[in-house]
Write a structure and sequence with these properties.
The structure is a single chain. By secondary structure, the protein is mainly beta. The protein has no helices and 27 strands. It has a 5-stranded antiparallel sheet with strand order 1-2-27-26-25, with no helix packed on it. A 4-stranded antiparallel sheet has the order 3-4-5-6, with no helix packed on it. A hairpin with a 3-residue loop joins strand 22 and strand 23.
Length: 344
């Protein structure tokens, strides 16, 4: 037990039930493996077993409630894991696939994306009546969904869509990266087009750089960012995972620490990469016993625990992992600004 929340401790070196993760092809010489501990969020229903989800995504830490919010995309659920008790609370969205959850400044409501729409979500209201529509994008493209999004430090919501998907295959160049604010919800600004699978949106600690992933490119890119206007420019690549041997993986979710280093989830790669974007250095690779690593965020009372979501593949895919001992801390998440959100 850590604090009061229940975690299942595992060793990366252990052969867990004979499990050998199907990892992407990695470098012949990996960076030195750091000393760290990994645990899994425990199941409330099955003692001694991890809680497993179909496709976990979009973790965000809420300091006010000491909880981790995240979504199970394919099950159309928003989950809240209470740090102090280990209880998991669930809000089901009947309307469709839910990919993103974010916090709203000064409100108990959440910001969520369902299909290609942006909504406020009232946790206390039953059913889909809890959803209050704010905006829709990619009209005329019914198979597109908002795949990833985060608020910036000024309260805008920067989010990108994903093109039609069949299995693991996504039609490329059918999507857009958008910027939303309360005054432009009916006409959100297109920041970047075309893209294929928007992921990994993060900002430098001083908010002058936005980091972004279009997953099929296998690159982490950077843009100069004007926090006053929300403009982006000077696009450049800061890290290409194929140059470090991860030829069969794609970068997915991403977060940043207080020193400006990036932490990247490797889908099909079974790892979290710790990267210095200023020089393109791969500092460390944190191995997990699940190949489909989807996203991550800093959390816990000191923001020094890395919560990592994964997608289902036997036996431990779909677990929410916690990495401790990185000697790093994260930044508190930004919140979406929407005046009088509770009354909307």
């Amino acid at each position: 037990m850590f604090g009061a929340i229940l975690f299942l401790l595992i060793s990366i070196c252990d052969n867990i039930s004979g499990y050998k993760p199907m990892l992407a092809k990695g470098p012949s010489k990996r960076p030195e493996e750091p000393d760290y501990k990994v645990s899994m969020v425990a199941s409330e229903e099955h003692a001694g077993s991890p809680a497993l989800f179909t496709h976990g995504e979009s973790p965000v830490w809420d300091a006010d409630t000491q909880s981790l919010y995240f979504v199970d995309v394919l099950e159309q659920n928003v989950h809240r894991l209470h740090y102090g008790t280990g209880q998991i609370f669930t809000k089901h969205i009947g309307y469709g696939q839910v990919n993103v959850v974010a916090l709203v400044e000064g409100s108990s409501r959440l910001l969520v994306t369902v299909r290609a729409g942006l909504y406020l979500l009232d946790w206390q209201t039953e059913g889909d009546a809890a959803l209050r529509l704010l905006a829709t994008v990619d009209d005329g493209m019914p198979d597109n969904v908002i795949n990833e999004g985060k608020p910036d430090a000024d309260g805008r919501f920067v989010a990108g869509t994903k093109g039609p998907q069949t299995g693991d295959d996504v039609v490329i160049d059918k999507a857009t990266l958008y910027s939303f604010d309360q005054n432009s919800l009916q006409n959100p600004r297109a920041l970047l087009r075309p893209v294929s699978i928007s992921n990994g949106i993060s900002w430098s600690p001083n908010n002058t750089v936005m980091y972004y992933v279009d997953s099929p490119t296998q690159k982490i890119e950077a843009f100069d960012y004007d926090l006053l206007t929300g403009d982006i420019g000077n696009r450049r690549t800061v890290f290409d995972i194929t140059e470090h041997g991860y030829t069969d993986a794609i970068p997915d979710g991403m977060t940043i620490d207080t020193e400006g280093h990036l932490w990247v989830a490797l889908m099909f790669g079974g790892a979290v990469l710790h990267i210095n974007p200023d020089c393109g250095e791969l500092i460390a690779a944190y191995t997990l016993p699940a190949a489909r690593v989807t996203s991550l965020c800093w959390g816990g009372p000191r923001l020094d625990e890395l919560f990592v979501t994964t997608s289902r593949e036997a036996p431990l895919g779909g677990a929410v992992f916690t990495i401790r001992g990185t000697q790093r801390r994260g930044l508190a998440p930004n919140k979406f600004h929407f005046h009088d959100a509770d009354r909307y």
